[in-house]
Amino acid sequence: MYEDLSLYIDGQFIKGEGRREQDVFDPATDTVIGKLPHATTEDLDRALTSAARAFEAWKKTSPTDRSKILRKVAELARERAQSIGANMTLDQGKPIAEAVGEVMMCAEHAEWHAEECRRIYGRVIPPRMDGVRQLVLREPIGVCAAFTPWNFPFNQAIRKVVAALGSGCTIVLKGPEDAPSGVVALARLFHDAGLPAGCLNIVWGVPHEVSTHLINSPIVRKVSFTGSVGVGKQLAAMAGGLMKRCTMELGGHAPVIVCDDADVERAADILVGFKFRNAGQVCISPTRFYVQEGAYERFVARFVEKTKAIKVGPGSDPTNRMGPLAQKRRIAVFSGIIEDAHQRGASILAGGSTMGEAGSFYSPTVLADLPDDSRMMNEEPFGPVAGMVRFKTVEEMLKRANSLPFGLASYAFTGSTKNATAIANGLEAGMVSINHIGLALAETPFGGIKDSGYGSEGGTETFDGYLTTKFVTQLN
Ligand code: NAD
């Protein structure tokens, strides 16, 4: 049975009750599976005032008490992973194993924040004068407004919620209207774990209307957004005009470098598995494959062979490895990128078309020998496509890889320490993963540079965006 969709305000789950409702679709069948209530302006204001009221008490709770709730959330997430995952497969489309895996992984995020929030330390600075005490205090910033996307509905939301709550902030979160079940399930976890009313509020609506209302409210002190670069810049500008702190996790266009001296077959096998996860709708998905001349033919042949073997179909069938795109509207954007590549003389070595009668299915696609100025090599494709190009020297490749405004994830495969070091130092990216895929763990910082945004989620950096620094100097 699909999730009972609702708003969550001041500790209460609120159904439609006359509010505007939005249809939620199963992208594997195009059928309506649920109705999502939109928050009225009064609902948004109630979410804000309850978050402000709850903040006064929550900021004074001990980290140990906050930690207990976050641990309980982790425990409940593991217990409910199957049902939360099944609902995410229904409204987002990803294979059931990936959806359940997303929830299990998020239990780790809750635990990491439960542990780390007990280590939010200040500092004592030695004074210049006898009798003076100089303290640096780190305090929760206040009420946060967060906006999360549909590609990892549960993961993107919980990372913001545990960072806000762990640091002593309260939060109003607007999740993805197209794939809302994971966020409603998240609210139930916190509710059942005993989080006081008002600390977490979930709202839905027309995205720009909700974000404009929340960001402009004097109650909100911090804005966190995960989504596209374009929307991120709009929200950051709005928040900047009001001097509100931001964390921006925006798009990427991850380069992958495969050098002549890499274990080419191993690299191809690892990268096919990773590339088509969540139908490539992943901000850290490898997209631009720079393969050195001597390895090119072998790497591409192996990659194409493995890509063609991927079984595509509804995510609810556990034998399918790739589901549909999450929304129908993405097909047009995606097809345009493939068509542009074709017109510019690139070869389509696998896929390149929609699949099936119903649903938003697109075949896993490999494009080869793309010109550097093709759309594929410049726009984030956010779908199941890999673009292959050749390079001669590491220096030349680094220039090309760094030529875009994005700077989120990057990957490299090489057998040489010299290449690995040159690539790790030379790539303009927030994250570099060499000879394996090792990003997005709870204990490691996740975030981008350049147009891909700023601020880190995860790692010991995770609370930085949610805390203010207060300096106290005191003469006794
Ligand atoms: P989008 O930016 O329009 O939407 C992303 C999410 O933001 C959606 O859930 C949407 O409802 C919400 N949104 C849109 N406009 C908003 C507004 N004015 N205020 C508040 N929320 C708003 O992009 P899209 O086309 O739906 O999704 C694809 C893009 O999302 C990709 O380009 C990708 O870069 C980005 N994305 C980035 C990350 C990341 O971690 N950096 C993760 C997922 C998606």
Sequence stretches where pLDDT stays below 50 over 5 or more residues: none
Largest sheet: 7 strands, mixed
If you average the pLDDT, what whole number results? 97
Bound molecules: nicotinamide-adenine-dinucleotide
- Hey, roughly how much beta strand do the residues contain? 15-25%
Textual characterization of the structure:
This protein has 476 residues and is of the alpha/beta class. The chain has two domains: 7-250 and 452-475, Aldehyde Dehydrogenase, Chain A, domain 1; 254-441, Aldehyde Dehydrogenase, Chain A, domain 2 (3-Layer(aba) Sandwich), CATH 3.40.309.10. It is 38% helix and 23% strand. The protein contains twelve helices and 22 strands. A seven-stranded mixed β-sheet has the order 14-17-18-13-12-19-20, with helices on both faces. Strand 8 (170-174), helix 5 (181-192) and strand 9 form a beta-alpha-beta unit. Helix 3 packs parallel to helix 4 (153-167), helix 4 packs parallel to helix 5 (181-192) and helix 8 packs across helix 9 (293-308). The relative contact order is 0.14. The model has no long low-confidence stretch (mean pLDDT 97). Bound molecules: nicotinamide-adenine-dinucleotide.
Could you give the topology of this structure?
Elements: E1 7-9, E2 12-14, E3 21-26, E4 31-37, H1 41-58, H2 63-92, H3 96-116, E5 123-125, E6 132-140, E7 143-147, H4 153-167, E8 170-174, H5 181-192, E9 200-203, H6 207-216, E10 220-226, H7 229-241, E11 245-249, E12 254-258, H8 264-275, E13 286-292, H9 293-308, H10 329-343, E14 347-350, E15 354-355, E16 361-362, E17 365-368, E18 385-391, H11 394-401, E19 409-413, H12 417-426, E20 431-434, E21 453-454, E22 467-475
Parallel strand pairs: 7-8, 7-10, 8-9, 10-11, 12-13, 12-19, 13-18, 17-18, 19-20
Antiparallel strand pairs: 1-2, 3-4, 5-6, 6-22, 11-21, 14-17, 15-16
Bound molecules: nicotinamide-adenine-dinucleotide.
